[in-house]
Amino acid sequence: MKHTISQELFEILAAEIEVLKNDRKAVILAHYYQRPEIQDIADFVGDSLQLSQQAADTDAEVIVFCGVHFMAESAAILSPDKVVILPEEKAGCPMADMVDADGLRAYKKRVPGVQVVCYVNSSAEVKAESDICCTSSNAVKVVESLEGDNILFIPDENLGRYAAKRLGRSLQFWPGYCKTHDRLTMEDIQTAKKEHPLAKVIVHPECREDICQEADYVGSTAGLIKYAQDSEAQEFIVGTESGILHRLHQVCPEKKFYLASERLVCPNMKMTTLEKVRDALKTLSPRVTVKEEIRVKAKATLERMLAL
Ligand code: 13P
Ligand code: SF4
């Protein structure tokens, strides 16, 4: 996938960022949904789980997180001694905003003893009120690790239903969803399959339930990339955010990838630009911090997941 800026501008900004990054002893982490030029200057590009592991393990003094707010916040929870920067402070996740700590506390009061699995796409306050965290790559494993049948999955109902179905377990769900993945319809998939009859359909579990059922493979962003690499198929219909195409083309240059819908663009993921990364390194802001009382509880929820 091409950069969204000219090659000349890319080279100027990339060089400026490199100098600032070394001065600041910073590491740049980027999610697979970021603009191609951001992925190309990052030290590490990954899915949510890999990025939180990197954030927990890095020796750098500054973490520049090219992603959305909950991702940078997870880095701040896991590495309180580091300066964590989110180059665009308005880059949030609408799904994460669909559950808040007050709403969750009220639910727990209504359903005593409920165990709460929270998707990493959630605020620090919500994580602090939950028992264990999960990402799209380990949701099945996390639910499997819990005993009993009084389990609430928040906030992504599609991912929760996908995990429940895989395990044949019954869960309680929160009515949250990703506004980007929700734009993908069965009609889009059927049209794409007609146009590309030999292609495998690979989708993210944030897609609607009927789409996950129809797909040849369902997985996290890193899971989708691995599947495409390992598969003998040469063509793929891709049901997740457009940014992943950059990595797919890099790792499988000989294979063909078709985005299942042009609407699969997360506006929040696209807010980060190279200019904002450069300015963030210059000013060490906007900084993401978490109140210590919340951080300690949220860290325990994340660490239960990381220990699995
Ligand atoms: P991954 O865990 O697959 O990286 O997904 C994160 C996300 O926000 C998907 O919309
Ligand atoms: Fe949130 Fe969906 Fe964007 Fe992921 S793609 S950050 S879940 S809005």
TrEMBL record:
UniProt main location, coarse: cytoplasm
Pfam families xref list: NadA (PF02445)
InterPro entries, per the entry: NadA, NadA_sf, Quinolinate_synth_type2
Keyword Iron listed: yes
Location in or out of the cell: Cytoplasm
Domain of life: Bacteria
A biological-process GO annotation: 'de novo' NAD+ biosynthetic process from L-aspartate
Enzyme Commission no: 2.5.1.72
Protein residues bound to iminosuccinate: 31, 48, 119-121, 136, 204-206, 221
SUPFAM superfamilies per the UniProt record, alphabetical: NadA-like
Keyword entries, A-Z: 4Fe-4S, Cytoplasm, Iron, Iron-sulfur, Metal-binding, Pyridine nucleotide biosynthesis, Transferase
Catalyzed reactions: iminosuccinate + dihydroxyacetone phosphate = quinolinate + phosphate + 2 H2O + H(+)
Pathway involvement of the protein, from the record: Cofactor biosynthesis; NAD(+) biosynthesis; quinolinate from iminoaspartate: step 1/1
Cofactor: [4Fe-4S] cluster
Residues annotated as binding [4Fe-4S] cluster: 93, 178, 266
Co-factor remark: Binds 1 [4Fe-4S] cluster per subunit.
Listed GO CC annotations: cytoplasm
Protein task: Catalyzes the condensation of iminoaspartate with dihydroxyacetone phosphate to form quinolinate.
Family: Belongs to the quinolinate synthase family. Type 2 subfamily.
UniProt protein name: Quinolinate synthase
Underlying gene: nadA
